[in-house]
Amino acid sequence: MKHTAALLGCAVLATALAACGSPSADDGAVVIRVQGMPPATDKPGLAQFKTMVSDFERQNPGIKVQGSTTAFDPLTFSAKLAGGRAEEVIKVPLTEPQGLIARKQVQPLTGELGKWAHYKEFNPQVLQPLSDGSGQVYGVPQAPFAQGLVYNRELFTKAGLDPDKPPATWEDVRAAAKRIAEKTGKAGFVHESKSNQGGWQLTMLTYTHGGEIEKDSGGKYVAAFNAEPTKKALTLLKEMRWSDDSMGSNQLNDQNDVIKRFAAGEIGMYMGTPGTYRLAKMTYGMENTDAFGIGPLPQAGGKATLTGGDVFLVPKSVSKEKAAAAVKWLLFAYAQPAYDPAAAAERAKQLAADPESAVGVPTLPMFDAAQQAKIDEAVKPHVNVKLEHFAPWLEGTPALTLKPEPPVQAQQVYAVLDTVVQAVLTDEDADVDALLAKAETDVNAKLAAAQR
């Protein structure tokens, strides 16, 4: 796929969401309860959603929509779903679908989705994490993203590196980081290490090395990271930190710390998405935004990157009649707005009215190259970022497999792996094998408790 940016794509959807309640179906209409409703404090979003519900019900007179403010809570979600108390449309992070599909707690929607005229134009990459082994699709994505390598083009130039050719492998990253540190005195590469984000980024590294964090063993998930891919990833970090001295002096960082330092020109590279451009510019005041560049996540045999976002699914317990109504809602509320170039253009125009905005920052395309090209063209007059600086990510990411976060207790797993990353980055004598062995025991205890 050549330069098929999802310039706003799902950003259109984000503003289309809010919710409201509908009256009971005394008139015989099908009533569906749908998650995705913002709280009352989000007045603009709520107003937009009420309009969306009204438009939907007018176009589908036999269906009534009741909005729900229920947000995903891993502590209560499973029990609510098992007890049949969940709404007809549920919204979950991308950590969840594969587990829900494996446990047969959600139902395939391929038949109903396939009735939409543009179904076959979905980007297969964004449907893959929502599909089973036979190709059945179970949901509709919202705002999907894929991790890449963010880099400072100005520091690349100062270090004698080509800012239009970001590192493609982790050995390339290591060499570039060392050169940046030597030539500029800045941290060549920084890896997050706290607030569960050290484990999160170690997951990305593991995927690029061909590994997994969790695996299915007899119907239950167990730790899978005490293996060569994660060991190689941690050894790479250890060598960059202690042998190359290319990661700077401050090793305890979360995403906000990293982006703030990057915005100030103190970091050469970090793992992130195109969307971190907005944080760098709008939250942390990055003055030289032309220095922002991003390429696909570098590889070491895995040909994969971590993806995320939210997903809308329909529980297995929902009747066929209500499931069909739910799919109509999902297509109307989430798929159609992302497909429509006019809607994307209108949203871009609204955003461009604010000089501090960042219009045109790419997201993972929801649809195929031909449709995305139409969206790009519609948005183009309002774009205020340099798309050529995002081109490496746009052109390289489609070749990678999109892998979701670990399906069970992801945040607790990340918390354990934070301690491993911190040890490697702060203790020159850290024993990678011993650290992973202990982490494996700790994580397996947490996973076993969660799957009783």
Automatic annotation (TrEMBL):
Signal peptide positions on this chain: 1-25
Record-linked Pfam families:
SBP_bac_1
Question: What UniProt keywords apply to this chain's record, in alphabetical order?
Answer: Signal
Record keyword Disulfide bond present: no
Q: Mind telling me which Gene3D superfamilies this protein's record contains?
A: Periplasmic binding protein-like II
Q: Entry's PANTHER family?
A: ARABINOSE-BINDING PROTEIN-RELATED, SUGAR-BINDING LIPOPROTEIN
What is the protein name stated in its UniProt record?
A: ABC-type glycerol-3-phosphate transport system substrate-binding protein
